[in-house]
């Protein structure tokens, strides 16, 4: 199994996430790829200290944390307020101009996806599922065995399931705790998919990159997943095998000259005994949940109106496909 850990600059959270990974059954068999959106020594030191599995670090090269005084950071002459004149930049649908630290979230995720699937030699001939997690996701000991089983079962048990998830789409829900598998909305906590699904995602690069919302997940829910069919499901178990923790979102990561966001995120989430072992049954039926949330007609939360961001996003989609029109 390949696991990709998408991180910003929250070292207290990363320590918790890494501890959780270290306790996962079968983790020594995995390749862990850690994707950073900047170079932060404390974050790098935590990853370099990992000894429980193979690790590869990748660093997003076009980041405001690396280029604070030039695009995609703040370029001299950039528009800042709605009433700005004779400046550079395009407003979003609400009249607001880009915020580099906010748009970098979507840039990093899209660069990471393109790099992992199409740019890394270690993955070039890999046809299995890749599990994606973030630094505020705590994996339970059964996470790897459960996601392996779900990935294998979804083709026969749930043809409408494009991905497998370790947790419900509602991050506050612990699961139904019934003897059945669950077809749910595609969530962003511990999600896994294969190269076939990546090709489907990549084919909608234009829609993803032009949608006026700085959130990668909302962009996917609104302009990508609806194109796949009436409902795009993800297969998961009736109990979560991963948990979102902490109160500091990526938006509140450390900025230059400011202290990092901090809360009780440094505490280890509790793990029940049943979540320490493989707890799925391939004979269970699949229960379909009602998928709710952002609809196809949602116009987005904005923050992604600048043509430079949209063009950079499209550049990421084509950087490993020279001569191919996206």
Automatic annotation (TrEMBL):
Highest rank taxon of the organism: Eukaryota
Primary localization class, coarse: Golgi
Protein's UniProt keywords contain NADP: no
Similarity-based family: Belongs to the glycosyltransferase 16 (GT16) protein family.
Matches recorded under InterPro entries: GlcNAc_II (IPR007754), Nucleotide-diphossugar_trans (IPR029044)
Organism: Ceratopteris richardii
Keywords noted in UniProt: Disulfide bond, Glycoprotein, Glycosyltransferase, Golgi apparatus, Manganese, Membrane, Metal-binding, Signal-anchor, Transferase, Transmembrane, Transmembrane helix
Name under which the protein is recorded: Alpha-1,6-mannosyl-glycoprotein 2-beta-N-acetylglucosaminyltransferase
A Gene Ontology cellular-component term: Golgi membrane
Membrane topology according to the record: Single-pass type II membrane protein
UniProt-annotated binding residues for Mn(2+): 136, 244
Disulfide bond entries: 79-87, 158-161, 209-313
GO BP terms in the entry: oligosaccharide biosynthetic process; protein N-linked glycosylation
Cofactor: Mn(2+)
